[in-house]
Amino acid sequence: EQSMSIWQRLPEFHWTCQVGEMKVGAQVLANAANNATGVAKPLLITQFAGAGRTALQATDETYGWTSYGGTDLYHQRYWGQMLRWLSRGRLSRGAEQSELLIDPKQARFGQPIRFRLTLGSDLGSANPRDSVELAIEGRDGRRSTVTLPRVSQSTGVFQASVSDLTPGSYRALLSRPSMSAPASETFTVSAPPGEQANLRTNLEAMQTLAEQSRGQFYSWKDAEQLMDDLPAGKPTRLGSLPSLPLWNSSWIALLFVLLITAEWLLRRRALML
Questions:
Q1: CA 232, CA 10: separation in Å to the nearest integer?
Q2: Neighbours of 11 (CB within 10 A)
Q3: Residue 151 CA neighbour count, 13 Å, CB half
Q4: By three-state DSSP, how is residue 180 classified?
Q5: Quick check: bond before 245 cis, omega within 30?
Q6: How far apart are CA 115 and CA 137, in angstroms?
Q7: Residue 67, Cα to own-chain centre: how many angstroms?
Q8: Three-class SS state of 37
């Protein structure tokens, strides 16, 4: 929490380099969020190369930290830790420990999670040829196994991705080959946001839906024009009404009586009776 608080107070970056497609084995350590579009772009990427480690920082504006708060503490600390971390790399093969990397460690539901295992000298002679197995343990006692195939026949790197984990907290550890102190890491899968997560009107999504459905989008400013734009309706016969019982109607009986009476009066007047 203290580290996140420091990152949020540091001066923001105004420019970042556009990073293309990620190579196999690359790991994103930090992303830069664009406040205008909300799209996160890779900011700090690392990958093993030969016997060492490389890092790509997609911005050159860390110089702004040299005067933050009247001191260059955070600038010196950042680059000092970066150089020490890169210098370790894989130069000391004799004392290297197996390393398990999980990206991302805080994943959304349905998002692919990449597991990358780099075997070290602590494995001893039990060096697998084709694949290794990871045990995924949940806090509720659920346990599953993930097989990591070898990335290259010349390296001890194994990698695979999983995207069917349910929301919760997990712990991944090396189960095959067995070790006294297997490499392990923890990660979480967050549940998808509910309907109440974002109550703001998504105007762009509504406009897209209107175009796809061949409709029309109206905002509150031009809502009065809706009634004028509606096309004229066309009458359509949906069915016939049930027949009326005319012979059982009292009006028909009255009309019949009136006609008979009128005929009798006419005949009487014409002396036909």
A1: 60
A2: 12
A3: 18
A4: coil
A5: no
A6: 14
A7: 38
A8: coil
